[in-house]
Amino acid sequence: MGNQMTEMLKGTLEGIVLAILARRSAYGYEITAWLRDRGFSDIAEGTIYALLVRVEQRGFVDVEKVPSEKGPPRKVYSLNAKGRDQLAEFWRTWSVLVERIEQLHHNDNQHDEGA
Amino acid sequence: MGNQMTEMLKGTLEGIVLAILARRSAYGYEITAWLRDRGFSDIAEGTIYALLVRVEQRGFVDVEKVPSEKGPPRKVYSLNAKGRDQLAEFWRTWSVLVERIEQLHHNDNQHDEGA
DNA sequence: TACCGGTAGACGGTATCACTAGGTACCGGT
DNA sequence: ACCGGTACCTAGTGATACCGTCTACCGGTA
After folding, report:
1. Mean pLDDT over the full length of chain B
2. Which of residues 47-86 of B touch strand C (CB under 7 A)?
3. Interchain CB contact of A98 with B (< 8 Å)
4. What pLDDT shows up at residue A101?
5. A96 and B103 in contact (C-beta within 8 Å)?
6. Model-level pTM?
7. Class (C level, CATH) for A3-108
8. How far is CA B6 from CA B3, B11, B38, B105, in A?
9. Alpha-helical regions (H) of A1-115
10. pLDDT of residue B109
């Protein structure tokens, strides 16, 4: 699979995960499964854990340890106020970027074959 | 200023520049000016030169040195066949990402965020 | 003359981020 | 006793954009 997608995920993956946590609290393994399910099949498991550590250290999420019937206890992450702020900021930046790039796309394929 | 945008540009800036070169050949300084004009004011000048070196080494562009009345000679970049291929690939990856993220956004919008 | 600002390109070092490739630990079924 | 699924964690790597700075040329101004 393209490392093109890999590079594009930089800066957006964090927002994606925050958006997931905005819907409901979740733990790492659950998030990776959810992403795989939703078509983000190329995202490595370790990446999510590293990302969760980052967002925790930045104070965007609250953490609760919940015992699991299978395996080690789950670390359940919940988006807090600061995280919701960050998510809003993410959507704002994302919108700006999409708008600008779509404009480029329109100007571009006026005389081009759309693959 | 958002380093959020900075991180998001990773992986997309190359496509943006290729899209610009798809419209017409250009040199580095011209591209930075064009970007500033189009709202990408947060992109550092040096970044574009480094990016142009990369895409040249990957064979996506052809280069021609053209003397300038002011300052050193311009390096005029033109998108070639391989570059057009890469650009098409970029648009494909971009579309997939936008689709997936927009879906997330729709599922997410419990709290309204005016654009 | 001497200096400044605009044009044009280049470089070195830094930070962030996602990936690879493992490892630890717990549990139930064969 | 072993294997596979669940669940988490880490170290090292590569790509990318950033910052500050430098070279070089030109015309206008003090």
Report:
1. 89
2. 49-50, 52-53, 68, 70-76
3. yes
4. 94
5. no
6. 0.89
7. mainly alpha
8. 5, 10, 16, 21
9. 3-9, 13-23, 28-37, 45-57, 81-108
10. 54
